[in-house]
Structures are given as C-alpha cells and as structure tokens.
C-alpha cells in the first residue's frame, strides 16, 4: 500500500494565531512535524495542506511539499481529500492525516497507524492509548473509545464509557481497560471520498466528534494501540512548554 502523509496546517487559530509558523527552537511548528513524518517507514510522501500563502512559501522554501487548499473546509478530513486530489490520487492507495500541531510526533506512531490501516477491512483506522490515570476519564477534552472484539470502534465519547455500575473501591482504570483516542487517522482513498460526502450527524453534533458521523452511517473504524506519548501545541502555554522541551534537548 502506497500511503501519502498529509499535514493540515491552517494559519488561523483562535488560541494561537499563526500556529504553523511559530518558532520552536529555531524551527517552525509545521517543519518540525514534516521532519518527524518523513522519518516514518510507512509513508511514501509527505505534503502540507494549507490555506495560507505564507505557510506555503515557508514550507517550499525549506524543501517541503505543499498544496493550497480551500479556507472553507469544515474539518481536517475535507482538507485531506482536497490535498489528495491536488497531489494526484492515482499515485497513492491511502492517506494519513497527521496533526500539524504535534511537533514531537514519534515516527513509529505513524507506522503503527499504517499497520492498523492495512488490517482495516473498512478502510479507516485511528489510534488509542490505554488510560493510566482516572483524570483522563473525567476530562471532556479527551475522547474515550469502546471497541468490539476485533478492535473496531463501537463508540467514541467525551464521557467515560462504559459506566462502572458497581461501587468497588480503587481507580476505575484498574478495573476496566479504558482507551483514549489519539488524533491520527488513516483512510483508503475510496473511503475518504465517501466520508467527505456525508452530512453532519446527530451524534456528531451532540459530542462534537466527527468520528461519530462515520459510525452513524455504518462505517467501521479500526483502532490500533500505541504507547507513544502525544503532545499537542494549541495554546501559548503549550508553545512555551514545547520550547522548554527543545531547549532541554
């Protein structure tokens, strides 16, 4: 399977304006993600999908590949499909949506997602981590996943599922193997084309989770497990932490 890695990089950000171009130890956010993605063994090519000429000029000037996409896409999934069309879908069998605000993404995590995609009969895959702290179960910023015996998702929720009805003592994560979502996605081309044609669903709107649109329309999502840590830079405080990490290295 020949897989295209796509890094959506919107310039506008409410909490961190100009996020793709912020400096982290002398290298921009977007170029740090590009560098990490290029080290994946499973990706044939990496491109940035942006909606801003400044980002495109920056990436190309540093030897990266970039395509200009619409500023009106409602999600990264839609941006990925347009980027695939611009890059030439006939040259690839599938795409991986790599978050543009994870400057320390581990290449091996991308490889894990691609391995899950290879096994996904439905043509969609994403990753999860085993919850090791009950605080994640009560954080609405985390999406929890329930799966079937084949590791296909049954449901994504901002609530801890399943609810533990018994009143036994001890941490909940030690009484049940909860999974929290890691925001990387892989899609076979033909499935991605179907997904972008779906209208928003009631479950999606209730939880503000796009994945529920796919489940509600009968698509299966294969879940791969990863132990690699994730760190998303979404606020000025996150940016300062990223700079501290680079300085420490």
Structural description of this entry:
The chain has helices spanning 29-38, 53-61, 76-87, 107-119, 189-195, 202-207, 211-216, 236-248, and strands at 3-9, 23-24, 27-28, 45-50, 66-68, 94-97, 124-130, 144-147, 153-157, 179-188, 222-225. By secondary structure, the protein is an alpha/beta fold. Strands 1, 4, 5, 6, 7, 8, 9, 10 and 11 form a nine-stranded mixed sheet that branches. Strand 8 and strand 9 form a beta hairpin. The longest helix has 13 residues, at 107-119. The mean pLDDT is 95.
The outline comes out as globular
What's the rounded overall pLDDT mean? 95
Rg for CA atoms: 18 Å
Low-confidence parts? none
Number of helices: 8
Portion of residues within helices: 25-40%
Features:
249 residues, alpha/beta, nine-stranded mixed beta sheet, two-stranded antiparallel sheet, 11 strands
Brief synopsis:
With 249 residues, this protein is an alpha/beta fold. It is 31% helix and 22% strand.
Topology:
Elements: E1 3-9, E2 23-24, E3 27-28, H1 29-38, E4 45-50, H2 53-61, E5 66-68, H3 76-87, E6 94-97, H4 107-119, E7 124-130, E8 144-147, E9 153-157, E10 179-188, H5 189-195, H6 202-207, H7 211-216, E11 222-225, H8 236-248
Parallel strand pairs: 1-4, 1-6, 4-5, 7-11
Antiparallel strand pairs: 2-3, 6-10, 7-10, 8-9, 8-10
């Amino acid at each position: 399977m020949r897989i295209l890695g796509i890094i959506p990089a919107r310039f506008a950000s409410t909490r961190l304006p100009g996020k793709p171009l912020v400096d982290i130890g002398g290298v921009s956010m977007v170029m740090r993600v590009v560098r990490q993605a290029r080290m994946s063994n499973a990706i044939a090519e990496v491109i940035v999908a942006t909606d801003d000429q400044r980002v495109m000029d920056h990436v190309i000037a540093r030897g990266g590949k970039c395509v200009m996409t619409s500023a009106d896409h409602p999600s990264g999934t839609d941006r990925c499909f347009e980027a695939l069309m611009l890059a030439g879908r006939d040259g690839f069998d599938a795409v991986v949506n790599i978050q543009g605000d994870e400057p320390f993404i581990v290449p091996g995590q991308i490889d894990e997602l691609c391995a899950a995609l290879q096994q996904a009969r439905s043509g969609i895959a994403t990753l999860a981590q085993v919850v090791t702290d009950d605080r994640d179960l009560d954080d609405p910023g985390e999406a929890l996943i329930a799966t079937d015996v084949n590791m296909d998702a049954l449901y994504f929720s901002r609530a801890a599922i399943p609810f533990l009805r018994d009143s036994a003592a001890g941490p909940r994560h030690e009484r049940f193997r909860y999974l929290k979502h890691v925001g990387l996605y892989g899609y076979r081309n033909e499935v991605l084309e179907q997904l972008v044609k779906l209208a928003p669903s009631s479950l999606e709107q209730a939880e503000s989770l796009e994945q529920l649109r796919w489940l509600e329309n009968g698509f299966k999502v294969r879940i791969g497990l990863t132990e690699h840590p994730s760190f998303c830079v979404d606020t000025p405080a996150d940016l300062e932490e990223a700079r501290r990490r680079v300085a420490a290295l």
